[in-house]
Design a protein that fits this description.
Layout (H helix, E strand, L loop, with lengths): L1 E5 L8 H14 L6 E7 L1 H12 L7 E5 L21 E8 H10 L4 H17 L6 H17 L3
Parallel strand pairs: 1-2, 2-4
Antiparallel strand pairs: 3-4
Helix pairs in contact: 1-4, 4-5
């Protein structure tokens, strides 16, 4: 199930479109049928989360909260230990306000920008990271693979 919560009222947000694209990302990534949460927020709230969980006191575009402990050395694979274990990847928190500002500044389509960020965050939920160059390369390949298979 894809859980979507809109916690901001500043910018209209196409819920059906995002649900469809997230479902497509999950399928392409090999996690069809897995649960994921998407929380749409504003810069004030994502800044608070960024400070609380990452120690960085500024707004950001997207944050990922995996439901399991994953790391680049221990990527999440599409397996669970039992039929009763939940298939929940975790939650994605996206500042739509940040995305709109970024898109306008860089003359990009805001929907395209948010899709790229959803893919990026999905990869984080799987355990990919970009702290080291080799990890960045792996994560970027995965992002490009998924983006290349998405329907327009």
């Amino acid at each position: 199930m894809i859980r979507i919560i809109n916690k901001q009222q500043k910018i209209w947000f196409p819920r059906r479109y995002f649900r469809h694209k997230l479902r497509e990302i999950l399928t392409i990534g090999g996690y069809a049928g897995w649960d994921v949460g998407l929380i749409i927020t504003d810069n004030i709230n994502i800044r608070k989360l960024n400070k609380t969980y990452r120690g960085i006191d500024r707004a950001t575009d997207v944050l990922s909260f995996p439901s399991t402990q994953v790391s680049p050395q221990n990527l999440l694979y599409n397996q669970v230990d039992s039929a009763f274990e939940p298939k929940d990847l975790g939650d994605i928190v996206l500042s739509l306000e940040y995305c709109c500002t970024y898109s306008k500044k860089h003359q990009q389509n805001v929907l395209d920008t948010t899709i790229i960020l959803l893919i990026h965050s999905f990869c984080h939920l799987l355990g990919h990271d970009h702290d080291l160059d080799q990890d960045y390369i792996k994560m970027r390949r995965k992002e490009d693979e998924i983006l290349g298979k998405l329907k327009p």
